[in-house]
Write a structure and sequence with these properties.
Elements (H helix, E strand, L loop, with lengths): L1 H4 L11 H17 L3 H17 L3 H17 L3 H17 L3 H15 L4 H17 L7 H13 L3 H17 L3 H17 L3 H12 L2 H4 L2 H15 L2 H7 L3 H4 L3 H8 L6 H10 L11
Family: Belongs to the SNAP family.
Organism: Iris pallida (Sweet iris)
Protein name: Gamma-soluble NSF attachment protein
């Protein structure tokens, strides 16, 4: 019946989208009750289209999110991304940046296992929406989620990039504790990835930032790097148990507790031959 209301004929010159949309919504609910996900998804897609046609983007976005959730249940991973991106676009049309970002985040969470690369793209786009709207603090968890997936994929440089972006966002919001956690996390990721040189460079860059300068996180990072310079594996393991590290995200704690990674002797020789400006005075 609803299909007929949206098609033109010799006796119907205007499509009755308003009436049809109500019928599609009812159908979607009923199909979901009887657990016919395929037909429920299609009905939500039609209901979303109907709300678009009657200039109701908010309701259209809501129904598109429902279709995306059902696509996940059906294992239609490409449709999951498409539906949540469409919902994001519709929310943006009605000026709701937070809802637009949330839609992408929902899509990302749905795809973390099935398509982690697309999940990261969705998280990144969700963060960008919030940053552009001056809502950086709402993006903190999204940056962490993106970094977590990159670590799972063993793309450590990309994970650091997300952590550093979190640090910048935290700085804008004067969230000093979150900023310091992000910078210490970035240094730990580099150390886990056997890249002492980049860990040192990251520390030196972050050390220029007032909030990080005198923080417990800075002291912890400094001690870690000094222990690496000395080739002291036991000291590294002891520092990894610090409460400062225990209060980081779980994925970072797991990395820290596996330190040291790589050839400590090689790091010690390189650090000795190429002084990087870190000594015991840095610990005070």
């Amino acid at each position: 019946m609803s299909t007929l209301r949206t098609k033109l004929s010799f006796t119907r010159w205007t499509a009755d989208w308003k009436a049809a949309t109500v019928l599609y919504e009812q159908a979607a609910i009923n199909y979901r009750i009887i657990r016919d996900d395929e037909k429920a998804k299609l009905a939500f897609e039609k209901a979303s289209k109907g709300h678009e046609m009657i200039s109701s983007p908010w309701d259209a976005a809501k129904h598109m999110e429902s279709a995306g959730a059902l696509a996940k249940e059906l294992g239609r991973w490409g449709e999951v991304s498409d539906h949540f991106r469409k919902a994001c676009k519709l929310y943006n049309e009605c000026g709701r940046s937070q809802s637009a970002s949330d839609a992408l985040a929902k899509g990302a969470r749905a795809l973390e296992d099935a398509d982690p690369e697309e999940a990261i793209r969705l998280y990144a786009d969700a963060c960008e929406i919030l940053e552009d709207d001056g809502k950086d603090q709402m993006a903190f968890d999204l940056f962490r989620a993106g970094a977590r997936i990159y670590i799972k994929l063993e793309k450590y440089v990309d994970a650091v990039t997300f952590m550093l972006r979190l640090g910048v966002a935290s700085d804008k919001c004067h969230a000093v504790n979150s900023q310091c956690k992000a910078y210490l996390s970035a240094i730990i990721i580099y150390l886990y990835a056997h890249d002492f040189k980049q860990a040192q460079k990251c520390y030196n860059d972050c050390y220029q930032i007032a909030g990080f300068l005198n923080s417990d996180h800075s002291i912890c990072a400094s001690k870690l790097l000094c222990a690496y310079k000395k080739g002291d594996a036991e000291e590294i393991k002891r520092i990894a148990q610090y409460s400062t590290i225990s209060n980081l995200d779980h994925v970072i704690i797991r990395l820290a507790r596996k330190l040291p990674m790589g050839d400590l002797k090689e790091i010690y020789i390189e650090a000795t031959n190429n002084e990087v400006g870190l000594d015991e005075n840095d610990l005070t």
